[in-house]
Amino acid sequence: MASKAYFFSKDILGGLLSGAAWRAAHLRMIVVGALMLREVHTRYGRDNLGFLWLIAEPMLFCLGVVAVWSATKPPHEHGIPVLAFVMTGYIPFFLWRHCVFRSVLCFRANGSLLYHRQVGIMDFLVARILLEIYGSIVTFALIAFVFGLADMYTVPEDLGLFFLGWTLMILYSAGLAIILACLSEMYDWVEKLVAPSTYLIMPISGAFFMVDWLPYWLQKYALLVPSVNAYEILRAGQFGSGVRVHYDLYYTLFVCLLLITIGLVLTRSVRRHVEVE
């Protein structure tokens, strides 16, 4: 009987722990969801298009780049459709750039909300990153759907690689965003460097070239940039056997997880730098 009572008690304890974990996760979801709505209203207002600007903004940028490339380049570049190439290049870069840009001083801008016991410091950043992910993915899906109806875009040949490329880009963006969010609170000069750095990084990000187009001696150096690997994987999924790709999956995954780990470690010390008004 004692043995049965012991195992019964363990089952109850396990159920309570799992229930508590679920309630904590549910609370985080509610808090992050509320912060996402607050961020949208703060950023775009409640009038006119409102939250639709979250999708309209990257869409306008992407269509502008598509228009320029279509006007200045042939329909196929290195045997690849220009439209699909730009879509798989600029929209993920827009995601990366805005995750990084929106992370700067993210904690300071929302510091007054830390008076609420349920709100954690990482909730602010998670809300902003999720907004950028949502806006970029929905933008890609809408543009792909419209151009697909006009037979100007075809669905990816390998959806597994396609989504893997997107996932790596999201992880890379999130890792850098967490680190820069912390560093911008600790050091004022970080804020000044972020905006110009995002433009300087664009040429080497892999958004507008493929590794196979580079000289052989340069390819190994290009693959040191995590986003280049993510783009290669994404385009391997989009174009399939129509392109020759080069990437190192394990290296890219390691760097992404390392960046996230460093960022999470920094969040443990950034709290004292955030002023609660």
UniProtKB/TrEMBL annotation:
InterPro entries: ABC2_TM, ABC_2_transport
Record-level GO cellular component terms: ATP-binding cassette (ABC) transporter complex
GO molecular function: ABC-type transporter activity
Domain of life: Bacteria
Entry's Gene Ontology BP terms: lipopolysaccharide transport; polysaccharide transport
Location of this chain's protein in the cell: Cell membrane
Primary location recorded for the protein, binned into one broad class: membrane
Keywords: Cell membrane, Membrane, Polysaccharide transport, Sugar transport, Transmembrane, Transmembrane helix, Transport
Membrane topology reported for the UniProt record: Multi-pass membrane protein
Domain ABC-2 type transporter transmembrane: 33-239
Transmembrane spans: 20-37, 49-72, 78-96, 125-150, 162-187, 199-218, 249-267
Record-stated family: Belongs to the ABC-2 integral membrane protein family.
Name of the molecule in the record: Capsular polysaccharide transport system permease protein
